[in-house]
Q: What sequence folds into this?
């Protein structure tokens, strides 16, 4: 009787299917799917639709697997940050060991299946990306250097290169520029977030630039990175994957982003606190649109080229 | 005595089992259609063991 009472008073901590899916970080996965898809579509060689579909699916699965490994390792800091405390492991719905085993199994499955579906170069690239995100970024850089976002951003920048490698079996200047676009975009995107999610990273003792070098320095670095990003984004427009549509979009988007970086740099903390970080939040939201529209424009160029328009 | 009442946890387990079943079915479908696509678009299809393999005989490889 007393056992029965005890069971009903404590809610069952058994995971539902959605909890395991949440371990794969679906929102990050959507960015991986989109950029990998664009990388595949803009490549000069084409692949049969089913091969392309399967390749994107397994790239997404690999991205999800690295997300599960990240959540397994970061459960302790996720627990103290408001933004992440509801994740499956800190909330007690999924056991850490389950997340680790899901991550490892899905990593293996996604790499082997990508190799069988497309080619082993792309599969090796995916394996390296998972390793880079789970080990280099999550286990090493994230807690040890304020440059964590800069170098770790490479993990998020590899998917368009993998998509390109699925079609071509290699690397080229175009795929490197797509990589550089996401790589250079990541720091201003995350630092804008770090400026208004201040207490979260402080509490978790993650050495974000805002904590280690100070907020004025972070503001300066956001502007520096938006300035460094602009030529990279525009250069992609001058290669075989670019064209007038992309170039026009890149020029406008980069002008707006640099203006956003300038606005953040010009402000001090008092002004930011006074309007609840309005500019920082605006630039963060725009940065999402910025990346989506760049890759959307590349896709548009590929579509136009296929009907004899677009491109140079 | 059989359990007659459905607890919330049973619904959650059912949802999880259906999710796993659908995922496995989808995986089988992907592998099947991928194989069909590879066979249709691919190169030579030949048996592997205890049989003549045209792709590795000298006359064909030249």
A:
């Amino acid at each position: 009787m007393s056992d029965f009472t005890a069971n009903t008073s404590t809610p069952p901590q058994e995971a539902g299917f959605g909890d395991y899916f949440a371990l794969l970080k679906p929102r990050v996965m959507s960015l991986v799917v989109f950029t990998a898809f664009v990388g595949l579509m803009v490549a000069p060689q084409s692949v049969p639709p089913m091969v392309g579909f399967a390749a994107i699916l397994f790239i997404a699965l690999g991205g999800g697997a690295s997300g599960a490994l990240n959540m397994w390792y970061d459960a302790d800091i996720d627990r103290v940050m408001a933004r992440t405390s509801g994740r499956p492991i800190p909330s007690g719905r999924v056991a850490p060991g389950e997340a680790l085993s899901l991550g490892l199994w899905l990593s293996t499955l996604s790499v082997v299946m990508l190799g069988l579906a497309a080619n082993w170069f792309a599969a090796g690239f995916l394996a390296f990306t998972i390793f880079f995100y789970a080990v280099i970024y999550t286990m090493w850089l994230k807690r040890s250097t304020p440059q964590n976002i800069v170098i770790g951003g490479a993990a998020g920048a590899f998917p368009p290169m993998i998509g390109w490698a699925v079609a071509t079996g290699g690397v080229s200047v175009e795929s490197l520029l797509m990589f550089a676009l996401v790589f250079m975009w990541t720091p201003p995107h995350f630092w804008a977030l770090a400026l208004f999610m201040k207490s979260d990273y402080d509490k978790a003792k993650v050495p974000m630039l805002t904590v280690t070098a100070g907020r004025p320095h972070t503001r300066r670095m956001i502007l520096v990175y938006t300035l460094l990003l602009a030529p990279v984004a525009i250069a992609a427009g001058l290669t075989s994957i670019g064209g007038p549509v992309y170039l026009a979009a890149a020029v406008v988007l980069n002008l707006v982003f640099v203006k956003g970086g300038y606005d953040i740099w010009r402000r001090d903390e008092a002004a930011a606190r006074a309007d609840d970080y309005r500019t920082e939040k605006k630039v963060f939201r725009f940065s999402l649109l910025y990346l989506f529209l760049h890759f959307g424009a590349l896709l548009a160029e590929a579509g136009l080229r296929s009907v004899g328009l677009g491109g140079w | 005595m059989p359990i007659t009442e459905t607890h919330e946890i049973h619904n959650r387990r059912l949802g999880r089992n259906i999710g796993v079943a659908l995922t496995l079915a989808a995986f089988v479908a992907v592998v099947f259609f991928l194989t069909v696509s590879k066979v249709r678009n691919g190169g030579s299809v030949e048996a592997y063991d205890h049989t003549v393999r045209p792709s590795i005989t000298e006359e064909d490889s030249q």
Q: What stands out?
A: The radius of gyration of chain A is 21 Å. Residues 278-306 of chain A form the longest helix (29 residues). Confidence is low (pLDDT under 50) at residues 1-12 of chain A.
